[in-house]
Amino acid sequence: MVIGIALAFPAGFIVFLDNVSAVSSSLNNTVELNLFLDMEVNEKQATALKDRLATHNDIKETILIKNDEALSEYKKLSGFDNVLDALDENPFPHLILVKPEFNNVVDTKVTRLVNELIEIPEVENIQYDSKWINRLVKIIDIVKLVVLILSALLVTAVLLIIGNTIRLSIYNNRDEIEITKLFGGSDSFIQRPFLYSGFWYGVFGSFVAWLLVIVSISILDAPIKKLSGLYETSFQLSGLGIANTLFLFGIGIFLGLIGSWISVKRHLSSIEP
Hints:
Layout: H1 2-27, E1 33-37, H2 43-54, E2 59-65, H3 67-78, H4 81-85, E3 95-100, H5 107-117, E4 123-127, H6 131-172, H7 174-182, H8 187-230, H9 241-267
């Protein structure tokens, strides 16, 4: 159980990072570049520019908001209908919403695309919120580093737990080991059962860790669905999956064998008949 709990934390961290990556990927769809066109650009030119940008490799979608549509929407939102009606001409330019096509939220790609689009003669100005992208990238990097450090500490703890358990087992069977050595038993023959024990500690510890992660995900699933519903998204928690489950059991078995082998090598030589 102790081994399982210790392994459950790194496994849970893996699930956490996978879900954070999924969330960050979904946030890419919210990255929008607002291209304010020059006031001299007419509707036909704006439409042609929109169609041309839609063929760009780094652009997923382009939406043209005509200046008449922008004026109408602003009237509804601002409540200054009378003031705007008094103007001789529409003060709003045509606007193109650009949704980039990126695999990850990487601020350098956004910056490069902005620098490329601002060189277009018809584009007067580009607005987008780059601060949250930088913050998100930095936060994810810090979280990954913290997860890596904590996982390394917990893996070390598993090694110590298994090594200490095998050491106690060796001293509990001290008399049997001495008798076996008296009858010519080699160290490799004596250490084999302890290696088997380490193997099964790793297997059952990994199973306990897998079970704890599954139960934790099932408990958090309903609240996460409610929260995502409030944001009008369909985000759903993902579990370990086959690859991560196999990785968990592989790590558990490896730590079990390594921990028992180190403990046996260290303490078995001190027992002599």
